[in-house]
Every structure is written in structure tokens, then in C-alpha cells.
Amino acid sequence: MRPLRDLPIRHKLLALGMLGSTLALLGAGIAFGVYDWLAFREGLARSLSVQAQILAANCQSAVVFGDDRSAAATLSALSVEPGVLGAALYTSNGARFATFTVPGFHELPARSTDLPSGFGVRFRSDRVVVRMPILAEDGGHIGTLVLVSDLEEENRRLRRYAVIGLLVLLLSVGLVYVITTRVQRLISAPILSLSQAASTVSLTRDFGVRAPPGNTDEVGTLIDSFNGMLEQIQRRDDDLRQARDQLEQRVRERTEQLAQKVDELESTEAELRRLAARLEASNRELQDFASVASHDLQEPLRKIQAFGGRLASRLGEGLDLESRDYLDRMQSATARMQTLIDDLLALSRISTQPREVRPTSLAVVVRDVLADLETRIESSGAEVDVGPLPTIAADSTQMRQLFQNLLSNALKFVRPGVAPRIRISSEPRADVEGAPLWCVAVQDNGIGFEEKYLDRIFTVFQRLQGRAAYEGTGIGLAICRRIVERHGGSITARSRPGEGSTFLVMLPARPQQGGADVGRQPEADHHPSGR
Amino acid sequence: MLAVSPKPITILLADDDEDDRRLTKDAFAESRLANDLRCVEDGQQLLDYLRREGAFRDAAAAPRPGLILLDLNMPKLDGREALQAIKADPTLRSIPVVVLTTSKSEEDVFRSYDLGVNSFITKPVSFEGLVEVVRILGHYWFEIVELPSNR
Amino acid sequence: MRFFRRSSAASRILVSLISGGIALAAPPTDRDVKAAFLFNFPSYVEWPPQAFTTPGQPLVIGILGDDPFGDALDELVAGRSVQGHPLTVRRLSRLSEAESVHVVYLGYSDPVEVQYAAAALRDRPVLTVSDGERLAEQGAMINLRLRGQKVGFDINLAAVDGAGLKLSSQLLKLARIVRVPNPVEGP
Questions:
Q1: Which end of chain A is more exposed for a tag (fewer CB within 10 A), N or C?
Q2: Minimal Cα–Cα distance from B127 to chain A, Å?
């Protein structure tokens, strides 16, 4: 069955037509044939019956009067009848009375009792046997006539029928073939053209192809739908292409824009780098200048110090009090100048020196600073309480400076007669953007200050206390502020005169660039939000 | 105190600053070091002295020092270059050099040692400090340390 | 002249007798055969209308002269009808009685008596049946001929026609037709 399924439509249709017609013809032919055959038989039976009846009537008197010769003579009239094989008369007791046969035919029954009684027509394979009862005038059964005829006629007829039938069948089939071949085109042609169009489209991807329109039947509808679909596809294709072109256009434009931006960025970056380099250079220059300047500035001061000292030691006792006083004031002024220059240098260095940001344990820093200040702590009888301090990413040197200054101040600005108590603590905070922040508090019980002077204390050289009371250049807190700000934090203080002060240092756990920062950052410090 | 060497060793001081020279001399006096302190004003003079050239052709005027105190920042030929020259000169190499300078620069320190200086001292700011340093110098270099004998 | 073999004729008549409802154990005798023929003849005869005045009128078979039948004919005839007329047998004593029957068996062996009787009944619609040699030529309409094994009958058509009777061709074809040149004039 598979080959049948895969036949082209033309052949299928043809096969369909032929099969249908052939079967129909065959069926009709057979039906008619059978009918004809049956009718023929019926006719034959009837005619034979009639003959038998006539014969029987004619033989009746012979049977009655026992005239077998007359009977035989009557039967012999059958010789003119083609197809009759034989006939026989039987008396009512079954005995054969008279016969007629064609030469060679010996199959008449010997007794009529061998046969069923009464009238009957029986068709055998090659003959037909008619039984006709012979009746007396009053209807009594006095004998039987048996007539046997061959079926030559029938066979001939059948043969003829078969031949004719076959011929007709062949002719019809031929005719059907011819007609179907033409007519199937009605169906197959549009299908074929559709199929062709479809495969063309599929091969060439040309959606402009259309199938030629068909009839208004279902195939026609199919073709129309197919064309419609192609139309849609074509349109969509065009739309897509258009969109794609537009997209490409836009992408190009955007890419150009981006390229421009990138160029701009690159040039900005280069610019920045240049600036950074210049800044660095400038910083270095500055630093160099600062060191050199401080060095050069320090040199005459040293001389003054030295020779002043020589003078003091040489003259020593010989000087009067006032002269001695003058000399002392000179020396102390010189010393102050030296400190000032050192402090200024330190201050400038905070901003100009490269930062080395590393995880720095503030606890360690404070410990070291306290170790440095040990003598002063001891001598002042100070009590220092250090709470847990965080480790932050910072420049450890500057942290040291920071805490050195703060603790030094705490040890300096003590209340007379009150042993200094210093408390260092820390607390985690978060800044406005939610980045982690530490607040380190350095609290003392010293002299305190009025908070309205808060800004001044962090300013360079601004002092709240006279030089006579407390030594120092007034630069310590400025340094602290600069260090803290450099780390992206802030510093403030709370105080009340006579009740001590608390200095609050806010330091981010991770540094953010603040100010002119040309620092290098060690690898460990890289983080995505680094600015 | 160990045995005093037969002849006091000449110490050659190279410093461009007259005041510093004066102070150092005074410091030596204060610390009662008996050494013969000679001075030169710059690197060139220093080399001239050591090589007995230029103004110091007379050997008697330029006794070979047993120790050189060298200031780094000097005009003409500065201390660093002079140091380099001294340490490159096989005849002068063996003289111990102590840098005595105002500079605290780490780089100066490193470079000096790298060049073969024997010690690096930053000048104290006060006279007293200077006296102390000189005294310790004397103690160290003349009493503790063996100096190569002059050739 | 056609003659049936007597035995076969006898057997056939036996058949007839059987169909007639009578079975004979012994082979049929002459008497039986004659009776059978006489019984069957009326079936093949057409009487003119005046022979039967009423539809159910019996058809009488008369016997004149010698009666060879005994009971045979009576037995055959009992309860049978021909063409709707019940058959009866009457023994006649006088010729004049024969005028009112339909079939008369002339039991005379003398041809003169047969001739006389035939002539007397010449115009009457009565089927005369004789039994002897060449008696049809004497004017009897049907003459039974038994000779040895054979049975047959002769028919005198002229006599039949003269009586106004018609005989079936079926009967005629079985018989020998006898022609008598000059009809015999009777008194």
C-alpha cells in the first residue's frame, strides 16, 4: 500500500476514476449478466415446460390407450428442437412407456419414481430436466413426461455475454481513462501548480512567488490562502527588513555616538591623567619645596639656637638678669619658630605625600602612640582607657599622627590638679549613603572649651589658650582635620569649659577619595565603589 | 679608657657653613677631644686636600686624616659626589667617612651607606646635642674602633 | 393397423385402472381391457347438445347383446364422471332402448346384426362400439380389435359424422380409420 500512497495526484485521481468506473461497470455487468442468465433460464424453463405440456397433452391418449408407438412418434417430434437431449413418458406406476433421445444420450431415468413427483424444472450442471405430469380428462395422474434439454444455448449465451461484456468493459475503461486523464486535470493541475509554487518558495526563499489562482473549490481556496500567506510573509519580511535596516541605522548612529563619547572619555581620561601627572609633579615640587624650604628656614634658626646657647654658656654667670632674660626670650622664640616650621612642613606633607592605604588596626596605632607618650602619661599620672578600636583601611603613618596629636592635646590641656583621664572608644555608624563608618571618640577630663569656638580650634594657628598657659603652635588639630578629611571622614568635638572635651573622629571603613588625592592604593584595597 | 694613639689623629671636616664649622670646632673643644681638626669648605677642596692638589700641594698642610666628617650639602662639588669620588679612589677609600649633615632624608642615608659611608649622623639642632655627638664620636672612633694606620 | 402388445397394453390398462382407482391383482383379462377402453372412450367424444338435456345428466353406457364385462365395467364406471356427466352402465334388452343412451356396446359377433344395429342408430347421437373382426366396416363407429398380444381399434368416421358426434384427434390418431364407400341403407 505504500507505493499507492506515494503516487502523484494525477495518478491517484486516475486510479480512483478507473477503479470506480471499472468496479461500477463490473458490478453492473455482473448484475445484468446474472439477471439475464436467470431470465434466460426462466424463459428456457417456461418454453420447455410449454413444450412438455403440449407433448404431454398430445401423448395423453396414447398413454391412456397404451399406444406406445404413437407416443414415441409424438415424442420424436422433438428431434427438430435444438438442445433437446431426450424425452420419456412414464406411466403412473413409474414404468417407462416411450422415449426419444438424440444419439448418444442415455441418461433418461428408467423409472419416473427415480425423480421427484409432480411438475418441476430442474437445472443441472449441463442440462435441464422438465417433469410434466400427464393427467386424465378428470385430472387424475396417469403418467409423467420427462424432457431433458442441454444448456448449450445458455452457455453460448453466457460466453457471448462475457465476450461482449469484456469488450464493453475494456472500451469503457479506455474511455474512462481518457476522460479521467482530462478531467483529473481540473483537480490536479491547480494542486500541482500550488505544489510547485510552494517548493519554489521553499528553495529560493523568494516570497514574491505566487501560485496561479485555481477554481472556486477547496483547492482554489487553498491556493488563495497560500497566496495570502505568502503576501503576509512577504510583507512581514519587508517589515522585518525595514526594521532591521532601521535598527542597523540606529545602531550605527548609536555606535558613532558611543565612539564619540568614548573619544571624549578617552581625551578626558588623558586630560585627567595629564592633570594627575601634573598634580603629582606639582605635589612633588611642593613637597620638595616644603622640605627644602623648611630645611633652609631651619638652618639659620639652628645657628641662632646654637650660638645663643654658646653665648649663654660662655657668659652664663656674667650676664645680668635682664640680659639673661633677653637671651632666654630670644632662644625660646627661636625654638618656637623651629617648631612652627616643622609643624607647617608636617601639615603640608599630609596633603602632598602619597598615601599608602592599608588595613590599619587603630588599636595598634593607639597603643604605639601611647607608648611614645609613656613618659608624659606617667609624669602626669594620666589614666588612659582604650576600648575596642576597629581596623580600617587608612594610611597608618597619618593615623599615627592623628592620634599622636589628639592624645598629646588630651595630655596637655589638663585641669590643674586633676589627674587626666582619657577614654578612647569607637562605635560603628553608617554615612548618608549607607557606607560603613566608624566614630572614634577621644574623651578627656581636661579644661574643655566653648563649643562656639569649634571652628577656630581646627584652623591653623588659631589658639584658644594663650602661649603662656599651654605651649604648642595651634597646628595640631588642623593637622588632625586634614588627615581625617584626606581619608574621607570628618572631625568634630564636644566640650564644656571645665568639664573636658570629646573629640569625635569619623573615619570610613574604606577610604573614599577626598581632596587632592593622588594616592596609590595597595591592591588589597580595591573595591568597586572606589572613586 | 684605652691607650692613646701615639699621635692624635687628624680629623678632616668638610662643611660649607662657617657657623657650623665654628660650632663643631667648639664642640670638639667642649668635649675635650685633642684631635687636630682641619676644615675644608666644599667637595672640591676636600678632594684637593686628600689628593694634595690645588691649594694643598704641601703635604705638611694637609696631613692625611684618620676620619672624615662630611656634610652632604655643599656648593661646587657636594658631599655626595665627593663621597663617591673618595670611595672610588683606592688610595682614599680606606679613610673612614662619617656623614654629618642637616639632612634627615632617607634617600641620603641609603645612598650614603650604599656608597660606602661608615656612619651617617644628622646634626643635632642644639649645641649641647652637637657636643654630645662629638664626644660619642670620639669615644667610638678613637677609643673603641681600630682605625687603619696611615700610609 | 397398429396393435399394442397385449401384455404392455395390459399393463397400461392396469395403469389406467389404477388411475381409475381400481387395482387388479391378476394380469388384466380381455374383459378388463375392453371394459377399460369402453370406459375411456367417452372422454374423447363430443356429443351434440341435444344428447344431454340437463347438465348433470348421466352419461349412459348401454350394453346390447352379449355382456362380456361382468362387473368390470360397473366397477370402473362407479362414481366417475366424464365432462361433468356421471357414468352409468345399463343393460339393454331391445335395440330401441339404445336410442336413449350415449354409448352402446354391441355385443354381437354377427356382422349382420351389427350392421342392422348400426343402421338403426345411424342418426342418433350414440357412440356405437363393436367388438369383432371388421365390424367398423359394418357401420360401427369404433370397433375393438384384439388380436393375440395386440389391442387396437378401428374408427368409422363416416358413421361418427353421420351421428353428429365428434371424436378427439387424440383418439383418432391412435385408431385405424376405416372408410366405407357406400353407407349401408337400413330399413
A1: N
A2: 5
